[in-house]
Write a structure and sequence with these properties.
By secondary structure, the chain is α/β, with parallel strands linked by helices. The chain contains 26 helices and 36 strands. The longest helix has 18 residues, at 725-742.
Amino acid sequence: MEKMKLVVVGNGMAGMRTVEELLKISPDLYDITVFGDEPHPNYNRIMLSPVLAGEQTIDDIILNSREWYAENNITLHTGKKIHKIDRRLRMAFAEDGTFALYDRMLIATGSTPFMLPIPGKDLKGVIGFRDIKDVDAMIATAGTHKHAVVIGGGLLGLEAANGLKIQGMDVTVIHKNEWLLERQLDKTAGLMLQRSLEAKGLSFKLNMDTKQLIGENGHVKAIQFEDGSELAADLVVMAVGIRPNYALAESAGIHCDRGIVVNDTMQTFDPRVYSVGECVAHRGISYGLVAPLFEMAKVCANHLANFGIGQYKGSVTSTKLKVTGIDLFSAGDFTGNEDTEEIVLHDAVGGIYKKIVIKDDKIIGSVLYGDTTDGSWYFQLLRDGKPIHEIRDNLMFGQDSLGNTGHEGQDKVSAMTDEMEVCGCNGVCKGTIVKAIQEKGLFSIDDVKKQTKAGSSCGSCVGLVEQILVSTLGGGYAPPSSAKTICGCSDKGHEEIRQQIRDNKYLNIPDAIKGMAWRTPNGCATCRPALNYYLISTWPHEAVDDPQSRFINERVHANIQKDGTYSVIPRMYGGVTTPSQLRKIADVADKYAVPMVKVTGGQRIDLLGVKKEDLVDMWADLDMPSGYAYSKGIRTVKTCVGSEFCRFGTQNSTQMGIDIEKAFDHMWAPHKVKFAVSGCPRNCAESGIKDVGIIGVDSGWEMYVGGNGGIKTEVAQFLCKVKTSDEVLEYSGAFIQIYREEARYLDRTVHWIERVGLEYVKRRVIEDAEGRKAAYERLLYALQGAVEPWSERVKKRNEHKEFEDITI
């Protein structure tokens, strides 16, 4: 059966997202031909700003390579602009004479930059900011000229200004309104943004109308304002808006009204012709944000596939932006009037501003500056129209604060519904990301970006994407060990941050953030846990441990489960217990109606399904130390029975395991750490897949490092052979301490060794005897006076309420 022919006019993000969706649900229905008037395959226009700033290249922002088109049997014509559509013959004609027949057509011609109709607009050096050609022109001009003027204080204008500043130009932004980003921010947030950008070296002229551009020898040299003043300009970038590009459709007799008019199935006046993207007018509205365009694409693909069930009824939009490293969020109507009320938090020094606009007990708008963590939650409340009177007192403090209101405690990610949007740039919700992680076996942020596009644009949602990975994969999450920077809050890498903490003796997070000039005054969920660990591991007994900068499990000293209950795993040193301990565990399980009692793979007993309000009482009744099964730190030391009972055992592995576990108890680390001690080469304790594995042999102990069980198993590498138990403690302690001091936060030992090399580890641990002993002593010093968290919390349960009120 001959396939139908689909011609796509426009090779941009909206048109190609439609094709991607179509290939998912009906890959064999059409022969597809795509025409694009640019010489490049489909690329991410949102990422033009990083290209201008020199942070990425054109290749980095390509969404669909030429190979992708070939693999999907799509005929791609780049650099060919369709100038005529004959609907009677069902043919599309390019300017160079190329033509294509169609059974269905998709017009996705996007928009064009609006150029102010003023004298001088046609001078050389006057451009828009819309495509790769514009970026190339800006970079070329920056290499030979000094003065740049950007007309327009919207998102594109500010990104262009920032990129040109990075390219070395003196940049002034001209804006006709009273504050920047007036469509996304209110006046207070707009002025805060202006001050932040001025600190980066940008200049601004607000409330200014441009009269004309003055040229010399055909090239722009100055801009003149309505008040008669002038400003030197070697380059003028007009970023004053876009206009739907519907001239082609209109010339073909398709009904247009300030855009290509479509119905709720994305069908035009001609039922064979569909349209999506910025060129469209749907119910009188044209959208310039990516998320609505991708919603259109999904509906359009549904109907092109002849399923006929999807409808696009418009979008409630939110804007989550990262303007030159500053996080912004807005949604709905945030202007306010006499019928509305506002809740405002304004920390001018800290660079945080939040405003929530309420009407009839519902959120109708919000603006966030500097801290956009709860933007998705506010947007969900707005979109769902939920009454907020029950959570009003905590509303400004975000979703985490609901733990204080009697709501079931969960961390931010687990509290998000699958429908809640994570990536506003690409319209990706939490459920899409979780499904991709589970079904496609994703392990890293880069994997998620490639599969779902979440986090691949402005980057402001990467921290949330990472939390979803951690939540979904647990120990299988592969942290970005080669990341250039700790997160978007800073331009510094992990090693530089650790060095500055040492050099400047920072002892708390606020001082560290301020001293290292963080872009975001309070940090984020990605950098704060890392900073907290770097501080306490660099300056033990001096640095201030910030519990709120730890992950949820470490804050409450128990593992949260998917139903909101907890698991309690007491410490059993070396896997050894007593009848008395077993009776306590059994009695506690009965008393608190524990749904499941399970022996773990680490030779301990897990009490699963414990209610939060029972935790402290259960710890008191158990009267056993915490097993730290929730920690980025030492978890278990697994043992076999060794020479004490096994007829094959050559060394007392059980006692060795107990000695290690007691010596390193309470130790925090960049990630979880697991030991195992086997009494003979038969290796019943599985020492070969542990962070530190120890195997007894006739003449002593063999030591292995960098093993990892879990989703991606890594076999440990041989480190050395020692004779005595004291040497086992010293060598393993030195290895762990160097790992603690040098690994990036969330690096497992295997990731750290991959980066520094096993030879480096051997030089530090084996060859440098003096350094090894010093590292071991530093570890023992750090562990002096460590507090057992369960018993400490039991003692203090009547002194304060920090646990009951803790945010989860």
